[in-house]
Design brief:
The structure holds two protein chains of two kinds. Chain A has one helix at about 1-25; one strand at about 35-40. Chain A is mainly alpha-helical. Chain A starts with a helix and ends in a 7-residue tail after the last strand. By secondary structure, chain B is an alpha/beta fold. Chain B has twelve helices and 15 strands. In chain B, strand 7 (about 140-145) and strand 8 (about 150-155) form a beta hairpin. Classes of the chains: A mainly alpha, B alpha/beta. The interface between A and B is medium-sized, with 21 and 30 residues. Strand 1 of chain A pairs antiparallel with strand 15 of chain B, so a sheet runs across the interface.
């Protein structure tokens, strides 16, 4: 019984650590492959 | 008239504005109500709703720079009272919300029907702004989806958002931000409105904890990005506008041009609302550009 509880806690602990790493690492997408920013002026502000 | 609980900062700002002979120094915001003024800009961390309620009752128009979701809701709830009294409460008059509302309204003009608006912001102004951001990341986000509010935990929904240079790409997350509440009122029939803020790994790891170190006096450069989607001539289009500036400086400039607009009677209607609701965006964007707060459009393939 004690061994089973130990294994359960260990499994939850490992799962929590893996979830935290996955949650903190990585990125939310890919940057735009083309284009850029252009300041609004003239016709844009009419 | 200047009010601040920080006497050192108050003295510094007072000296910077020494040519303004009408500046009077007082130490409590309550003094606003005793003063002979036409308009008040609320830029302190909390208590905007109560002060705004008292101010409009005394015939004073109000500009609030709060980005606290509870404050913004309280201020918007004053709309019937402000309308009845014929006073204006400009809610969320800062960098984001504020400039973002103006950019969304300006971008929306080119569409027959706006279907989605997605706002993102990066950076903070002063210490109170940084504390608000820290709290927002661990709060509950309110997204508008298909005619109703959907609540989601802050710190989720990672999305890489591309801001004007030098901010560039930042991972942004849901947070307790008021932008959706303000924008939904201006775009009837809109399907989705979301707001995200940039955060790094340390921000996310510590978001449930108190701030581990005091915030900087000035947060450095920041950016805003507004992605508007909709239909024009039967086709779906996306238009992305943004701006890059020091959030505190840009937010103060937005509040200042809004004050001038109210004093010059350029408000669409009396009452309480966001900038996209109460003002025509183009004149304010011109005023902001004249003062150095410039907007930009993203041209290219939007991911």
């Amino acid at each position: 019984m004690i061994n089973m509880l130990r294994r359960a806690f260990l499994a939850f602990g490992v799962a929590g650590i893996v979830a935290s790493v996955l949650r903190l690492r990585g990125t939310g997408g890919t940057p735009p492959q083309e284009g850029g920013w252009r300041e609004l002026s003239g016709q844009d502000l009419r | 008239m200047l009010c601040d609980t920080d006497l050192k900062r108050l003295d510094m700002v007072h000296r910077a504005l020494e040519e303004e002979r009408t500046v009077t120094v007082v130490d409590t915001a309550e003094a606003v109500l005793a003063a002979d003024i036409d308009i008040v800009i609320l830029a302190h961390p909390s208590g905007h709703t109560d002060l705004a309620r008292q101010a409009i009752a005394q015939g004073i128009d109000v500009i609030s720079g709060s980005d606290d979701i509870v404050e913004v809701k309280g201020l918007l709830d004053l709309d019937p009272l402000a309308t009845e009294l014929g006073r204006t409460i400009a809610v969320g008059a800062g960098f984001a919300p504020g400039l973002t509302c103006l950019l969304a309204a300006h971008a929306g003009v080119r569409f027959d029907q706006v279907t989605e608006i997605h706002v993102a912001k990066a950076g903070t102004g002063g210490p109170a702004c940084a504390r608000q951001h820290h709290g927002a990341l661990s709060g509950t986000a309110r997204d508008w989806r298909d005619g109703g509010w959907v609540e989601r935990p802050g710190g989720t929904g990672r999305e890489l958002c591309w801001f004007p240079t030098p901010i560039d790409g930042r991972d942004c997350y849901r947070a307790a931000l008021p932008d959706s509440m303000l924008l939904v009122r201006s775009f009837p029939g809109i399907e989705r409105v979301t707001a995200r803020m940039a955060a790094n790994r340390r921000d996310r790891l510590t978001m449930k904890l108190p701030m581990l170190r005091p915030p900087h006096a000035e947060g450095g450069p920041g950016g805003v990005r507004v992605e508007v989607r909709g239909t024009r001539d039967g086709a779906f289009e996306t238009h992305v506008l943004g701006s890059m500036d020091r959030p505190g400086l840009a937010g103060g400039t937005v509040a200042a041009v809004v004050a001038v607009a109210i004093l010059n009677d350029r408000v669409r209607r009396p009452g309480s609302g966001g900038l996209s609701e109460l003002f025509a965006p183009l004149p304010l964007l011109h005023d902001l550009a004249d003062r150095g707060v410039r907007a930009a459009a993203f041209e290219g393939l939007v991911a």
